[in-house]
Amino acid sequence: xxxxxxxxxxxxxxxxxxxxxxxxxxxxxxxxxxxxxxxxxxxxxxxxxxxxxxxxxxxxxxxxxxxxxxxxxxxxxxxxxxxxxxxxxxxxxxxxxxxxxxxxxxxxxxxxxxxxxxxxxxxxxxxxxxxxxxxxxxxxxxxxxxxxxxxxxxxxxxxxxxxxxxxxxxxxxxxxxxxxxxxxxx
Amino acid sequence: xxxxxxxxxxxxxxxxxxxxxxxxxxxxxxxxxxxxxxxxxxxxxxxxxxxxxxxxxxxxxxxxxxxxxxxxxxxxxxxxxxxxxxxxxxxxxxxxxxxxxxxxxxxxxxxxxxxxxxxxxxxxxxxxxxxxxxxxxxxxxxxxxxxxxxxxxxxxxxxxxxxxxxxxxxxxxxxxxxxxxxxxxxxxxxxxxxxxxxxxxxxxxxxxxxxxxxxxxxxxxxxxxxxxxxxxxxxxxxxxxxxxxxxxxxxxxxxxxxxxxxxxxxxxxxxxxxxxxxxxxxxxxxxxxxxxxxxxxxxxxxxxxxxxxxxxxxxxxxxxxxxxxxxxxxxxxxxxxxxxxxxxxxxxxxxxxxxxxxxxxxxxxxxxxxxxxxxxxxxxxxxxxxxxxxxxxxxxxxxxxxxxxxxxxxxxxxxxxxxxxxxxxxxxxxx
Lengths: 186, 431
Ligand code: HEM
Ligand code: FES
Description:
Chain A has helices spanning 2-6, 11-36, 42-46, 79-86, 110-113; strands at 50-53, 62-67, 70-76, 122-126, 137-138, 144-148, 153-156, 161-163, 175-177, 182-185. Chain A is α+β, with helices and mostly antiparallel strands.
């Protein structure tokens, strides 16, 4: 037997390998539907965008809305908070990326983290700590921004991670102001 | 030690007939009646039997709870309250189940520490040990998913934090997390699949327990001397009645404590926040897992720093991935313990230095658990970092080093010698 297997492959060897391969491919194909069944379903995916009236949010106030089952913070920051955010050098940051889905890549400057030129007072972020997903508490922590009580992450007034185990700045979802009063998220 | 030979003698026509067709009575007789156990086993050896009974308690109470439980975000919280108030003996079944999980873990920790003290994981019992660690992992998964079912605030946020671990995996993390959750956040699909798996996993545990016991019956039990049985007649006794009665005593004492919690302190080991219905827009001020996860939780939170290439900004492992790796590592390291402990001597009774390090390790584990229940700031984090470092050093540095550094005491030539000369051996100094 062993002498034979060292010689030229036979037709039988080919058939074994071909059958084995087909069997493996078939088994994988059969497993795919039950695996895929666990992914987010159509009704979950359908909740893709919402519109929010922000006209009543005064400077210093914030609201939290629910988007795709996640909280989104919408905060109208005071001038002081915007200034504080602007005064931080990029080098001091733990995460130097803007994490703003509306911009693509870019440094985590105060402007890049805000709703943009002319709307620097607005900040819109997904309210799940980038560590393990708890909801940080506003107006607290060592940097006057948000503090996540779960494992102690401190974010500054631009939602940038400054201290604690979270690796990234709070993520900024795709959004746009469709008018001065209405914000569309998603 | 089972030695392959059987002492079963079918006594009547029917058992003879059955024995030739399905020798189940023979199997039971050989495994639980005639099975020889070392005669010097102490009380710490009763926790194996206690664990087996606790698994059965969890399955029976769980199956009846499942008859009234509703696995949906709209119905779960209310159905649990309904079980507590309106279902006949629902309060009892739920309290047995919830406190039973705690007692189950208490027993498994004693069982694991027992194994560490007496070197139970050493050659030839490595597979037995690995199967045990596997059971422990399955128990953790089961209890975690069970805790999500009552759909309180701790259920929801515990689930969020734990499934958040998967988002730490580079590149594909978020995709995997959303696949596990069946959505972008913990929600109805998550609760449903957790119920399905919470029902399934205990039966997988039953399967692994069967392998664990099989492996045990191949190698036989260790005993406090760590010396293998040499003379079956002199050094072992049959499982029934000796071990059965002793296990029964251990179980009775254990059940007194269990009943004390169920009837007098039913919520002591739970968390008041879990009586508030899950709210996806509000995180409780202080998230803590069930007590049995606390040491691992402390290790997770201890890694607050990125690990970078020195003098550059290039982050190799960020703090989040680092925390998850440390936590997974703290359990995974148990799998390789048989190869990290290089000492040939099994029992800590004959290893004067290891005995001390063992107790330090126990204290460190308990302290980590305490830190896991504290807020994650200031001195607590630093303490957790030091203890986490020690936890790993115990396995990776101390155990391999002790194996060659330590001079063990004289190991008795046999169990019989040790038991007869117990007093004089204990008084003898190390040579
Ligand atoms: C390894 C064994 C098991 C462990 C460690 C375990 C653990 C847990 C835990 C910790 C809870 C939360 C208790 C609470 O706070 O209310 C729970 C709930 C639950 N478990 Fe289990 N369980 C086990 C086996 C089972 C089995 C076999 C079933 C059968 C279907 C089951 C059904 C349930 C149900 C329906 C609930 C929700 C009701 C409740 O919260 O009391 N469990 N389990
Ligand atoms: S989830 Fe926010 S610090 Fe861990």
